[in-house]
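Mods, move this if it's the wrong board.
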Amino acid sequence: MHTGPAHLFVPGPTNLPDEVRRAMVAPMPDHRAPEFAAFLRPLLADLAPVFGTSRARIALIPGSGTSAWEAAITNTLSPGDRVLMARHGMFSALWAEMAERLGLVVECIDVAWGAPCPAREFGRRLGADRHGEIKAVFVTHNETATGVTSDVAAVRRELDAAFHDALLFVDGVSSIGSMPFEMDAWGVDLAVTGSQKGLMAPAGLGILALSPKAIGALDTARSPRSFFDVRAILAAHEAGSFPHTPPATVLHALRAALDRLAAETLPAVFARHRRLAEGVRAAVAAWGLSTVAEHPSFASQTVTAIRTPEGVDAREVIATARTRYHTFLGAGLGPLSGRAFRIGHLGDLNEGAVLAALAVSELALAEAGARIAFGSGVAAAQEHFAGAAAPCLAAAA
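Not the wrong board. C-alpha cells:
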C-alpha cells in the first residue's frame, strides 16, 4: 500500500491543477441553450493564441489527439492522394500507419529515432514533384517517443522554395500549450493537439485548427466521414454548440486551464518549460547517460527520453519507480522498449516536481543495476535552476 500522492511524470496525460479539477464539478448543461453558446464561443477564441493563430478556425472533437489526426485527414484529403511523411519515432510512425489505413499513398522517409523531421529531404522530394502529385506534407512537431522537436518553419520554407501547394499538417499533441507554436507564421494548414498534455485538462478532446486553405479543402475531399465531419462541427460551433453531445466536464476543465495559461502568460509558460527541460538534461549528463535526442539543438522542452546503460533494463527502472516510490515514468516505445525511459516535464510542473522525478529516477536506476552517484543528477539540475533563477531575482530587485 502506498502513502502520499502518486507522482506522474509521463509525457501525457499530465497533472491537473487544482482549479482545473474543481472546474469539472459542474452541473450538466443544456448544450443547445444560449448559456452554453455564451460559454463555448470565448473558449474557442481563447484557444487561438495557444495555436499562434488569428486566422484559423478551431474544431473540438470528442476523443483524443488521435481523433483529431483522423479528422484532419478525412476532411481535407481523398483516398489515393499522395502524401509525404517521415518516420522517426512511434507517433510519427502511427500517423503514417493511419494515413495508409485511410487510403492515402504514403511516401515515407525513415529517419533514425533520435533525429528530427528531414526538412531538406522533404524539400528535395517536393522540388522533384513537378506535377503536384503530393497533396500534403505531415510533420510531427514534437516526437513524444524520442524527445525530439522538429523545425516546422524549415519545412514551410522548403514548401515555399519549391513553389509547392501541398497542405502542411502538423502534430502538436505534445507541444501546443507548452512550447512556442506559430500556426500563422509557419504557414501550417492543419494543427492537431489534445486536451490532456500541455493544456493541462483531462483526456477527452481532440483539437483541430484549420487554416483558410484547409477550410477550402473541406468541400473537395472525398474521404468518408460522419462523426468526424468537420463541416458539421464548425457549423455547430458557429451556432454555439456541437453536432453531438459534448464532453461538458472536459470543456469546463479546459476553460480553467486556459485561464491558468493566460494568467501565467504564454511567454512565461514557454520559458518555464525550457528551464525545466534544461535541468533534466543537466541531470542526464551528470549521470553519464545520454538522451535519445541526438543533439541538444532539437531536444524537446516537454519530454526527455533517456537511454539506460548497457545491461540495465529500462523496464525495470520504470517498474521500480512505480512499485517502490509510487512514481510514474514514461516507457520506451517500439525499438526503445527496455532501452530507454522517459521523463515528461510539461503542463502543471515546477522545479520541485522535476527534482523529485530526478531523485526517484536515481534510486530506480541504481536498483536496476546502473552505477549512479546519488544526488549527482539532482545537484546538476539544482545548479541549473539556481543559475536560471538569478537573473529573474535580480530583475525583480
